Amino acid sequence: MKSTNNAQKNSTKRSPALIILLVLLIAAAFFVMSDAPFIKGARDTLMQKLGYEAIDQSAEDGSDSGEVSEAGGGNTAEAGSFDLEAGELPEWDGNHYVKVNGGVPEFPDDVYERAGIHSGKLDPFEYYGSLDDLGRCTYAYGCLGEETMPPEGQDRGDISSVHPSGWAKAQNWERCHLIAWALSNENANPSNLVTGTHYLNYDGMRPLEEEVEHYIWNTGNHVLYMAKPWFSGDELVPRGVQMIARSVEDKGKGISFNVYCFNVTPEAEIDYKTGIVTTSEQAAQDARTYVINTRSGVFHYPSCDGVKEMSEHNKKTVTATRSELTAQGYTPCGYCEP
Ligand SMILES: [Zn+2]
Fold first, then answer.
1. How far is the CA of 285 from the centre of ligand 1 (A)?
2. pTM for this one?
3. Which of 58, 158, 237, 336 is the S-S candidate for 166 at Cβ 3.0 to 4.6 Å?
4. Same domain, 32 and 171
5. 39, 59, 79 — which closes off a domain?
6. Which whole-number Å values give the CA distances from 290 to 77, 197, 295, 297, 318, in the listed order?
7. Mean pLDDT of 27-46
8. Using CA atoms, how far apart are residues 133 and 130, in angstroms rounded to an integer?
9. Is the pLDDT at 131 greater than 90, yes or no?
10. From the CA of 290, how far away is ligand 1's center (Å)?
């Protein structure tokens, strides 16, 4: 060190310009290499002004799809581009659900992004896609954990105000959460409720939701989760709901599935455009007398109070089977439930 000081002293004596150059070089090197936040910020600003993307930012933004496989999925499907194609949805085979993609969970990039999988800083969240042009739910996903679940002792809220697409009265439809209330603490969120059968809601989806719920309570871990209704063409009632889940901390050891749950009722015909359900019992009904309100398109039993209040002008009495009327586009009254 001493000899260096001497050398510097000497050089100072010899050339003041040289020491100024040296100081500038050291400052420049410091500016380029330092990780001090204010220097880094200034450097990034300068780089951006010069037309370069800030290097650290682009490394973190994870637009490089190759990183996703680390989280498990492998492929980086966009929302809606799974190996299920609308119009080619699986036919109900008597089971509650079929596996999708061999049962291997895959998520859109955005799920990994928001969950902070790339940056390694886990960030629980929920996201609900907007309704489409036909007012149908699109998808819901999140990184679920105790943070997103209802606090202990909290009661479920009222969801009866929401009428999901395809909802028809008196058809025994259930408001089916895409992400269960017990996982999301979401009540009357229209982007999270679809028209579903008891078979879908209770027998198909619930056991899987409970599996995730119990896993989170037992481990305190997190689960990447996505639920997406699948519609055929412009129908308003989904044919099924895809459910994808993968536990984060143990890399899918605890929770790992990718399935399509059928929105059907055994022993019933569903009109997925109108939401009208005809049970085989109803289909077998003989023709009988109904009263149709020609203005509203609703049909009643003749004894219904709705008939007494109906104006004579709109009243039409017919003899038909229930299925004949629903096939003609008439809707059963929600009160007398013909
Ligand atoms: Zn009625």
1. 18
2. 0.69
3. 237
4. no
5. 59
6. 51, 26, 15, 12, 5
7. 53
8. 9
9. yes
10. 10
CB 124 within 8 Å of CB 145: yes
Residue 144 resides in a domain: yes
d(CA 332, ligand 1 centre) in Å? 8
CATH code of the domain in which 196 resides: 3.40.570.10
Query: How far, in Å, from the CA of 272 to the mean position of ligand 1?
Result: 23
Could you count the other beta carbons within 10 Å of the beta carbon of residue 317? 10
Helix (H) or strand (E) holding 37: helix 37-49
Does residue 242 surpass a pLDDT of 90?
yes
Burial call 257-293: b when 16+ CB within 10 Å, e when fewer: bbbbbbbbbeebebbbebbbbbbeebeeeeeeebbbb
> Residue 202 Cα, ligand 1 centroid: separation in angstroms?
29
Residue 186 lies in a domain: yes
Same domain, 228 and 164: yes
- 55 with 96, same domain? no
CA gap 96, 82 in Å, rounded: 20
With a CB cutoff of 8 Å and minimum separation 6, the contacts of 216 are 144, 145, 146, 149, 183, 222, 223
Indicate the number of domains in the chain.
3
Q: Are 125 and 147 in contact (CB under 8 A)?
A: no
Domain that holds residue 316: 285-332
Query: Is residue 280 one of the residues assigned to a domain?
Result: no
d(CA 300, ligand 1 centre) in Å: 4
**Per-residue model confidence (pLDDT) at position 9:** 44
288 CA → ligand 1 middle, Å: 15
In a domain, 177, yes or no: yes
Q: How confident is the model at residue 129 (pLDDT cuts 50, 70, 90)?
A: very high
Of 12, 37, 59, the last residue of a domain is 59
28 with 90, same domain: the answer is no
Structure token digits, residue 18: 């040289």
Local structure of residue 205 (DSSP, 8 states): I
Task: Determine contact, residues 203/177, Cβ cutoff 8 Å.
Answer: no
46 pLDDT tier (thresholds 50, 70, 90): very low
Cα of 57 from ligand 1 centre, angstroms: 63
For all residues of the chain together, what is the average pLDDT?
82
